[in-house]
């Protein structure tokens, strides 16, 4: 591995961890950074596979709650309903993601101008939603009904377009469906676990023939950096959005999208 590739993998892993759970689209940030750094991976596996580091960060932060839910499953209808709602929310993305995997990786991942435009449009939408006044009906993720979970899961499917943001789509969907800001962000964390793990397994399987030792080593570097940086975000995001909302992320999306378009125009 060249030193430059290792540095690029570290930078991309840092970007992945810092942006995965905030509504700015980690995939868009990583793909744009790859483009301008001149970094590539066989089958575009790197942006997807390093997400496992971010998954492990959630598992670590929420281990106690996950353990409580797991041990309560035999006796608690509330715990069983919560697990069911997460699985229901995951199903739409599982079906559509498996069916459209080739188009997503070979077309959408390879169109940086589209990614920039989607970042800007998503920022405008997020800014509008943040300024709306909602009367939340749901403040605890354990009380989310299955139909609400299904609607959030359908919103998550929009995030298959790079630049949309998986967390942004699920959070906006939850807010529009009656959730408060904090529980919307927390449910997005839990929904990320099966969604990102499913994407990891599918991408690894689809690209098993093009993986190399050097490629796997770079993925490991990015994975570790994504894990460390995601820990910081997961531990601090809920309090931040509860107090300040999502406007700062909306403006960030718009700025990155505009800078990306400017960079593409200047250097290609």
Automatic annotation (TrEMBL):
Pfam families: BacA (PF02673). InterPro entries: UppP. Keywords: Antibiotic resistance, Cell membrane, Cell shape, Cell wall biogenesis/degradation, Hydrolase, Membrane, Peptidoglycan synthesis, Transmembrane, Transmembrane helix. One of its GO terms (molecular function) is undecaprenyl-diphosphatase activity. The chain crosses the membrane at residues 43-62, 82-103, 109-129, 187-205, 217-238, 250-267. It is a multi-pass membrane protein. It is found in: Cell membrane. GO terms for biological process: cell wall organization; peptidoglycan biosynthetic process; regulation of cell shape; response to antibiotic. HAMAP family: Undec_diphosphatase. Belongs to the UppP family. This is Undecaprenyl-diphosphatase.
């Amino acid at each position: 591995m060249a030193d430059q590739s290792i540095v690029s993998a570290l930078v991309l892993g840092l970007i992945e961890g810092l942006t995965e759970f905030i509504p700015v689209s980690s995939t868009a940030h990583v793909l744009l950074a790859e483009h301008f750094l001149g970094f590539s991976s066989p089958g575009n596996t790197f942006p997807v596979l390093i997400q496992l580091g971010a998954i492990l960060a959630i598992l670590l932060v929420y281990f106690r709650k996950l353990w409580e839910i797991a041990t309560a499953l035999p006796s608690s209808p509330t715990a069983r309903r919560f697990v069911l709602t997460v699985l229901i929310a995951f199903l739409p993305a599982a079906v559509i993601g498996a069916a459209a995997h080739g188009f997503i990786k070979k077309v959408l991942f390879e169109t940086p101008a589209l990614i920039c435009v989607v970042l800007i449009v998503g920022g405008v939408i997020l800014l509008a939603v943040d300024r709306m006044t909602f009367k939340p009906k749901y403040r605890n993720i354990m009380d989310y009904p299955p139909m609400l979970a299904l609607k959030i899961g359908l919103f998550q499917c929009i995030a298959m377009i790079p630049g949309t943001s998986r967390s942004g789509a699920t959070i906006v969907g939850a807010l529009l469906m009656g959730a408060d800001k904090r529980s919307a962000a927390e449910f997005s964390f839990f929904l990320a676990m099966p969604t990102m793990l499913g994407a990891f397994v599918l991408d690894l399987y689809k690209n098993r023939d093009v993986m190399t030792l050097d490629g796997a080593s770079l993925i490991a570097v990015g994975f570790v950096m994504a894990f460390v940086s995601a820990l910081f975000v997961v531990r601090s995001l809920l309090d931040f959005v509860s107090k300040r909302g999502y406007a700062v992320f909306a403006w960030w999306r718009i700025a990155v999208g505009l800078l990306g378009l400017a960079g593409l125009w200047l250097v290609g």
